[in-house]
Fold this protein.
Amino acid sequence: MSGAGDGGNATDEGWVLGGHRLRSRLIVGTGRYDDMRLMRASLDASEAECVTVAVRRERLYDRRGQNLLDFLDLERLILLPNTAGCYNATDAVRAARLGREILRNLGNPGANWVKLEVLGDSKTQLPDPLGTLEACKQLVAEGFQVLCYTSDDPITAIRLKEAGALSVMPAGSPIGSGQGILNPNNLRIILEYLKADDPRYPVIVDAGVGTASDVAIAFELGADAVLLNTAIAHARDPIRMGRAMAHAARAGRDAFLAGRIPRRLYATASSPEEGVISSRPYPLPELP
């Protein structure tokens, strides 16, 4: 079951990631909130069952000295440790090992998971493709189930899947930018390529979500899940935004499964034309 999602089923009863069945198709981050209680309430509103956590020890505590893990329902939530803030493969592998150690001690089922981020620079927060591929290969060899944050480049996405990534996670737009899905065509190509030999291979859109409509668009394109953080944490009302994201995920996924009508240049009458009172259309002007 490892690596299977439910791609194109006519009904949606959830999806499978790394052997775990999840009902919610949202993965939500735990950073950037004003306080831990607000974070917990917002996560509950989003209905997410998997949350991502920056596991370096200094990031587990807020400015009040509160431990993030004390505010997460570890009986209900699967934790996805991430390597946020790493700029080379060596640091990312070290952070992944630390995450596995912490989650094993907690008995959390996400202990062998890692959301791999190897960033190219601090200004754009864009991924370093070579460093990401290097770290992915090493972590897979060490028994990790690797979810790889990457750009929207289809060839890089193919290379990461070939390296053994449990899931490839192309960005909708730069991290925290709120720009939404900037290049839907590339995401369509990634989905086509990665699912060609296995429609259940999970592709997760990660980064750049600004509001609920961005989530719906990602699912309408065929994404299996969406990962987001800042769009909820920095919203004017994070709890309400969390709830909006849950609704958007369901709506977008239902729309994808329903199948949209084709786009047409001209109008198509929605009512039958037989049996109606006839009238002559207004004549078009003659062109010179």
Observations:
- DSSP finds eight helices and ten strands in the chain.
- Confidence is low (pLDDT under 50) at residues 1-10.
- The CA atoms of residues 152 and 216 lie 18 Å apart.
